[in-house]
Amino acid sequence: MRIAPARAGDAEALTDLHLDVWEEAYAHLMPASVFTDRRARRTERVASWSSIIAAGSSDNLLAWSADDRLLGFSSTGTGRDPDDDLPPLELMALYVRASSYGTGVGHALLEAATGGSPAYLWVLDGNVRAIGFYERHGFAFDGATKPEDVGLERRMVRA
């Protein structure tokens, strides 16, 4: 496995991965219409990822298999929450293909993205697998929640 920063030419593969992993992670938590709508806006999503990568406003790492198959990605950046008590680093996204669960890809991405530094993230309530993963890596709920279109998100912090 190889972890590398996302490049402009990766936007299409990253979009397809992002669409796939959302369905794999959230199929039991969201209606199918959410995934259908996301896929219908694929072209828009490719353009969005291209812009995000070009702007450099977040650090986006991609995990590639030995045969150059995209296995997962992470996004980190300066925290977007206005809370002074939070670590300055936010893990904005960490997704891995279901076929790579338990193989160390998620752990490798998390370590490459955060280096074990204090950080915080938002996780969808009910996403038991992700919550367990983050707890094993030192994150804990701090009590903050926010409603999103797709469900309630809960904040986790690693000091």
| Molecular shape | globular
The CATH topology label is Aminopeptidase
Any idea how many domains? 1
What is the highest CATH level, the class?
Answer: Alpha Beta
Mean pLDDT: 96
InterPro entries: Acyl_CoA_acyltransferase, GNAT_dom
Organism: Nocardioides pini
Domain N-acetyltransferase: 1-159
Protein name: GNAT family N-acetyltransferase
What can you tell me about this protein's structure?
The chain has 159 residues and is of the alpha+beta class. It has a single domain, classed as Gcn5-related N-acetyltransferase (GNAT) (Aminopeptidase). The chain contains five helices and seven strands, in the order βαααβββαβαββ. Strands 1-2-3-4-5-7-6 form a seven-stranded mixed β-sheet, sandwiched between helices. Helix 1 packs across helix 3. 25% of the residues are buried.
SSE blueprint and pairings:
Elements: E1 2-5, H1 11-26, H2 32-40, H3 42-55, E2 59-64, E3 70-78, E4 89-96, H4 105-114, E5 119-124, H5 128-136, E6 140-148, E7 151-158
Parallel strand pairs: 4-5
Antiparallel strand pairs: 1-2, 2-3, 3-4, 5-7, 6-7
Give a quick summary of the entry:
It holds the Pfam family Acetyltransf_1. It comes from Nocardioides pini. With 159 residues, the protein is α+β, with helices and mostly antiparallel strands.
